[in-house]
Amino acid sequence: ACPLFAATFRTMSDSDGRSKKQQYRREKPWDHDGVDHWAQEEFKEGDMVGGSLLEESSFATLFPKYREKYLREVWPLVTRTLKKYGVGCELNLIEGSMTVKTTRKTWDPYIILKARDVIKLLARSVPAAQALKALEDDVASDIMKIGGLVRNKERFVKRRQRLLGPDGSTLKALELLTGCYVLVQGNTVSAMGPYKGLKQVRKVVMDCMQNIHPIYNIKTLMIKRELAKDPTLADQPWDRFLPKFKKRNVKRKKPKTIRDTTERKYTPFPPAPQPSKVDLQLESGEYFLSQEQRKSMKQIEKAQRSAKRSAEKRAAREAELEAPREASASKGRGKKRKAADREERQRMKRRFLEAKD
Predict the structure, then answer these.
(1) Using an 8 Å Cβ cutoff, are 133 and 139 in contact?
(2) Which pLDDT belongs to residue 347?
(3) Beta bridge pairs of residue 100
């Protein structure tokens, strides 16, 4: 290294007390500790120095048929509100769509994205008075699609009802803790509020669809809300205060009948198709008969079935009228009775012969 350069650098760093990379820094009187760098300044009319927008931007969204009547009633209110920001809107009842677009009078370049969120919320059954709040700077919106997260329809309905809770109590608690407006409609969940609250709402909704009850996340949010009030815990981790829930795997019920698949043999060929009704008619020749012949055949078959059924019933009635067989006597008593009968017959035979003589 050059000794002259090293001496010069050492002199500069020692004289100012700062390193070389800091020697060109100047004090900024407008930047001090009291300045909030994260504060969002309100964008007012006239702040866009460039004048009007160069190109027109537009967004369109479809709405369901059942929202048509309500949208026709509130569309004048939507038009008046968007007109304050210089945004044009159109309601097409033939196509079933809503469109928003910028105009020459638009003075906020970001307002078109806010207007897009408004028509999306209106299409998802959010009231117009609530949806128009999305035009404010401190209000964001999020539409979560939950229809494809659960395959079984019955299971999906149960988990969606679990998100609402009895009489909407779970949803109301979630709104109070996050400061957001939440609406569950069909296969979507619409939310409006600050960004931090929207993040919490999305976590609760997605966990609920993954079979994690919302009450666990709500309990965690309540504890965090109380911990945030204590300034001494601002720089400390909160893991020791938060609850830890154990996952319990519920054992599946064993089926009553288990099929024995040991004797089954694998065959790459599918089973033979079952003959259809037309195939059976072709095989028996019934297909080529006329309508009257088929009717007569059915009547004959019916008469044969009824005759067979009546014969079976008659045989059953006759079987009930038969006299029961006498029980056989014991062997000893049978021999004695036979001997007595034989003697009686011989006695009657002698009498008959004597009387004849």
Answers:
(1) yes
(2) 83
(3) 59, 89
Q: CA-CA distance, 348 to 182, in Å (whole number)?
A: 114
Return the bridge partners of 62, or none: 97
Rounded Cα distance between 118 and 112, Å, is 10
SS (H, E, C) 102-169: ECCCCCCCCHHHHHHHHHHHHHCCCCHHHHHHHHCCCCEEEEEECCCCCCCHHHHHHHHHHHHCHHHH
The model's pTM is 0.60
State both tokens at 2: 């050059």
Instruction: Find all residues with CB under 8 Å of 103, minimum gap 6, and list them.
Output: 56, 86, 87, 88
Cβ atoms of 202 and 144 closer than 8 Å: yes
Q: Residues 275-293: pLDDT tens digits?
A: 999 999 888 888 888 889 8
**Residue 46 burial (C-beta neighbours within 10 Å; 0-12, 13-18, 19+):** exposed
